[in-house]
Amino acid sequence: MIIPSKSECLAILDKNKTPSNVIEHCKAVCKIAEEIADKLIAKNIKVNKKLVTAAALLHDVEREKKDHVMEGAKLIRKMGFPEVAEVMSKHSLHKIENPAQQPRTYEEKIVFYADKKAKESKIVSLEERFKDLKQRYDIDFTKEYAFAKKIKKELMVENK
User: Fold this and answer.
1) Quick one: how many helices (H) and strands (E) in the chain?
2) Residue 1 lies in a domain
3) Percent of the chain having pLDDT more than 70?
4) What's the total number of domains in the chain?
5) Is residue 160 part of a domain?
6) Is residue 25 in a domain?
7) Bridge-partner residues for 122, per DSSP?
8) pLDDT grade, residue 146 (50/70/90)?
9) Is residue 36 part of a domain?
């Protein structure tokens, strides 16, 4: 499994002309994801932290495009990082009721959850993040919020 380093991920974002505000969001997601990975590893849970770091940094590489989740995964897969692309492909709330869309591995769950904890580049509560999403898109995210809380519980993340 080939996983790009942090500096390689930042270079990919830069080369792809990902907007700086999106890169700052990705860095915040990465910080949250690495902290969760460290906590799980400390509990002797097997987590590939390098995979978590790369997927968290690259998860919104194509944020400006329609269906940015699939477009980003396609780009990263094409660059020779299929495992990173797979983890990235599971961070969406879109069609979360579809089992094929849901994060299954620890790495996928960590990146999914960390993304829901970062409002732009700020770390916030799930409640605040979903309130923001509802205001921004005028969509009822009740199912998605419940799913994110379930992932939080599975990851044994403290209440913050």
Assistant:
1) 8, 2
2) no
3) 98
4) 1
5) no
6) yes
7) 119
8) very high
9) yes
Query: Is residue 159 predicted with pLDDT exceeding 70?
Result: no
Secondary structure element (H or E) that encloses residue 123, with its range:
strand 122-123
Q: Which contacts of 128-132 are long-range, i.e. CB under 8 A and separated by 24 or more positions?
A: none
Q: What is the CATH number of the domain that holds 124?
A: 1.10.3210.10
Q: Which domain holds residue 108?
A: 6-154
Query: According to the model, what pLDDT value does residue 147 have?
Result: 95
DSSP state of 119: E
Which residue type sits at 108? E
CB 59 within 8 A of CB 114: no
For 32, the token pair is 């949250």
pLDDT 10s digits, 56-102: 999 999 998 888 989 999 999 999 999 999 999 999 888 888 888 89
Nearest to 63 by CA among 115, 6, 127, 101: 115
